[in-house]
Amino acid sequence: MIKLKINGLNTSVEKGTTILEAAQSLGFPIPTLCHMEGLTPYGACRLCVVEIGEDERAKLVTSCTYPAEEGLKVRTASSRVLRARKMILELMLASSPQSKIIQDLAAKYNVRQQRFRQEFEDCILCGLCVRMCKEQMMAGAIGFRGRGQERSIGTPFDIKSEQCRLCGGCIYVCPVCQLRCTFTEPEKAICGGCANLSPPCVDKEPFDDMMCYMDPCVACEIKES
Questions:
Q1: Is residue 89, in this structure, part of any structural domain at all?
Q2: Nearest to 45 by CA among 103, 107, 123
Q3: pTM, entire model
Q4: Does residue 223 form part of some domain?
Q5: Percent of residues in the chain assigned helix, strand, coil, to nearest 5
Q6: Cβ(142)–Cβ(148) under 8 Å?
Q7: In this structure, is residue 225 part of a structural domain?
Q8: Is residue 207 exposed (0-12), middle (13-18) or buried (19+ Cβ within 10 Å)?
Q9: How many structural domains does the chain have?
């Protein structure tokens, strides 16, 4: 068994367990979009970032792909982690502003402003559909194409695949296709209709982490000494 510490709690997990799995076993919420049980971890959306290590050696890693290590110290909701998640959600809103799943996450993490140019690409390249098609449907009808800004998902040469059985599995797992936010004003990127209170504990000295993991946050009163 591997011993590590998550948010100050000691825990033991089997070899091969990821940080995400270890944190979830303790009840610590970590948001994910590209991760799904039964599919190979991919680490594309980066929303599951956590902070490992201490002081100047601390760094952010994707918890869905990083294996638990002996003596590892993990923080799942430090101020650094929350800032990174907010930035990632702003970037996702630029690509898929009408995804209800992304809008709900943005509201949960107190994202009130979208600073990036709206693109309406409606794809965050999470790769869920590609892995579902290959690993669960055993078809491999779709895949990634191109690199960098030209990267996309589809069939080779945009020709209908003979392997596709029109099962709909790719649409079922897509975080953009599943639900559409009814907010349609193009000049505003963030709906805010499901806005939640942001955790006040993170911004209070001497705290640098969330003090509890209530979902949604109940914004409990913290008195300064």
A1: yes
A2: 123
A3: 0.80
A4: no
A5: 25, 15, 60
A6: no
A7: no
A8: middle
A9: 3
